[in-house]
From TrEMBL:
Xref: Gene3D superfamilies: 3.30.300.10, 3.40.50.880, HUPs
PANTHER family cross-referenced by the UniProt entry: GMP SYNTHASE [GLUTAMINE-HYDROLYZING], GMP SYNTHASE-RELATED
GO terms of molecular function: ATP binding; GMP synthase activity
ATP-binding found in the keyword field: yes
CDD domains membership: GATase1_GMP_Synthase, GMP_synthase_C
Protein name: GMP synthase (glutamine-hydrolyzing)
EC number: 6.3.5.2
Encoding gene per record: 100636905
Organism: Amphimedon queenslandica (Sponge)
PROSITE patterns: GATASE_TYPE_1 (PS51273), GMPS_ATP_PPASE (PS51553)
Keywords: ATP-binding, Glutamine amidotransferase, GMP biosynthesis, Ligase, Nucleotide-binding, Purine biosynthesis
Subunit: Homodimer.
Amino acid sequence: MWAFLATPTLHMAATSESAKPDEEVQELVAILDAGAQYGKVIDRRVRELNVNTIIFPLETSAEELYHNNLKALIISGSGNSVNDSSPIHYDPNIFSLGVPILGICYGFHTIIKHYGGEVSKGMMREDGQFEVILETDNNSLFESMERNQQVLLTHGDSVKTVPDCLKAIGWSGELITAVHHITDPVYGVQFHPEVDLTINGRQILKNFLYQISGCHGSYHLSSREASCLEYIRDKVGEGHVLSLVSGGVDSTVSTALISKALGPNKVTAVHIDNGFLRKNEIEQVVASLARLGISAQVIRASLRFSSASTIMNYRDKDGSIFRQATPLLNTVINPEEKRHIIGDAFVTLASSMLKELDSKGKRPIFLAQGTLRPDLIESASSLVSANAHVIKTHHNDSPLVRELRKQGLVLEPLSDFHKDEVRQLGLSLDIPESIVNRHPFPGPGLAIRIICQEEAIIREDFSTINSILNTIATYAQCLEKPSSVLQFLSMIQDCTSSNDQAFLSELSASLTYFITLLPIYTVGVQGDSRSYSYAAVISSDDESKFSWKDRMKLAKLLPKILHTINRVVWGFGKAIYGPVCDVTPTHLTTGIIATLREADHQAHSVLASHGLMGSISQMPVVLIPIHFDRNYQEIAAFPSCQRSVVLRPFVTCDFMTGVPAMPGEHIPLQVLDEMVAAIKQVPGLSRVLYDLTPKPPGTTEWE
Ligand SMILES: Nc1ncnc2c1ncn2[C@@H]1O[C@H](COP(=O)(O)OP(=O)(O)OP(=O)(O)O)[C@@H](O)[C@H]1O
Ligand SMILES: O=c1[nH]c(=O)c2[nH+]cn([C@@H]3O[C@H](COP(=O)(O)O)[C@@H](O)[C@H]3O)c2[nH]1
Ligand SMILES: NC(=O)CC[C@H](N)C(=O)O
Ligand SMILES: [Mg+2]
């Protein structure tokens, strides 16, 4: 059928790169976006494999796809479920087009259901990097690969029955993780071949494109610098640009690009002190921008931010939406409220500067930001996906920014880039490596690294979760005397593989450890949707016997068993006995910000003094409102008044997925000890902890 098609119409370029085809008829693969966090990563990977792409919403009709003369279709993941009461519509005729199809996660579920199989939400969910077994013989998708593969899984729905026309070709424990159609070129994978945490994902995509879809690889990426410069010149014309510079990588590269495109006289660079910056940040930022010939104006606005508020959409109990003013930033608790207030405060401030420039006759004026692809996808911007869920509203994609964008007044030359691509571009612009390789620092800064709460979050299942955690920590002993914990044991067994159970058994037989639920919530990403849920802490007096590898392995199992836990940390020091049932009331007030700023400074100074900044990608230092080690008999007499600090050294390439840094590998153990000791010198702190959570199910930041 495809042989008779006309030449393709390329009406919608998926990225700002321009194609330079070697052949007259360009090979084109469509990505049907169901609202994935990784839709643009699929797009990037396919292009890197020299095949051009086009992104359509999943709802696109088969007829429209037909007219694009496609070599293949890839159906993405989604935060939605195929079993939703009104699932995202797709045109069933896409399966009759005769074009090869690869379904990823939600796309895999769509294939299973389309052919009459069953997908359901069982006890198991998997979020993170896991080992799967793949059928590599007589199967083109996994050609030239080993049977055992490390892949990224993030799903709550799983395949229950496979229809006769499909054949299972991959397993994660007892779960089916890949299928192919017995006669047609249709494949589905539960895992995500597009992300870095699927180690051989590129090979799978290559097999799909070249072996299965018959692509030859005629597409080449052209210079992105040239197309960015052209975009800036076209958009700004004779106008002027107000560029918001944080001193981070993205805004530095974007401002350098804008200066190169328009000349420095047409750019006013502004760095805003919102009161949540790191220690000595302003001086460092101004100095490093000066090295690039960019003179940044500093606006001191910490008081304005601290007392800022905004109007937000809220949802009633019956689901209807109403608009209301948020609390002031210095009293706020909810992380999304924080992010909206900060984002809107940035824009309000910028708008008054735009007016000032306007009054000086510099017009039209554009507001420039170093917005990247992940900022837009995590904020669920309609610019990148129709169906994506909001994971967290990045400050540079707040409602007021969206309003300005609609008016065509925002200039974001990097909005199609991932962090590693920005770094490459920065180097090609001759920006020094010390600036290009800086750790990112989020615009809302320390504000989203302070978990604010007035009260402990104790839902009615709090003590049951603690009992299950206790059963996990004493698994071997519970197996010997199961009578009082039968229901917990069977739940653990339902959610884990036999290998997982053997691990729990050996670990609890060889050492004593505790797992304690914390009455605080943090943000995560599971199955491409947002989670806002509990954190748990592992601790032990047998620290020397408990390897970091085993701590990480245990941490990965907890969210698999208890879906209301999305983050797991290690508690340095002696074991934590007893439950933690209260919090130290915490808001974004000056003293509390100062405490975190000092702890952050101490931790980063130790890391830098050992020359280790380059061995990890970022290290958020987070303040949590937990005062450990109090005698729970005397709690009324000794109220919670201290807080604790969590280190979150993180390793990633594009920040879409990543893993916690492995102590002993990425950070020497003695450096870690030094960091902990330095942080403990800061007054008002109870304990230091270490985040063991990959992304997913955690995110890099805690809010
Ligand atoms: N303190 C600030 N002053 C002015 N603009 C800011 C500030 N913080 C953030 N921004 C704006 O928000 C954008 C997004 O911030 P983001 O942290 O993602 O990028 P960055 O700071 O440039 O780079 P990095 O990811 O390395 O921190 C920035 O590019 C910049 O335009
Ligand atoms: O400028 C920013 N404004 C924001 O609102 C924001 N939120 C997260 N980040 C940074 O984005 C990267 C991915 O973070 P998460 O895994 O926590 O989503 C990490 O590098 C985060 O530091 C932000 N940067
Ligand atoms: N990543 C995905 O596509 C997940 C699909 C679905 N939301 C699930 O959790 O199973
Ligand atoms: Mg930043």
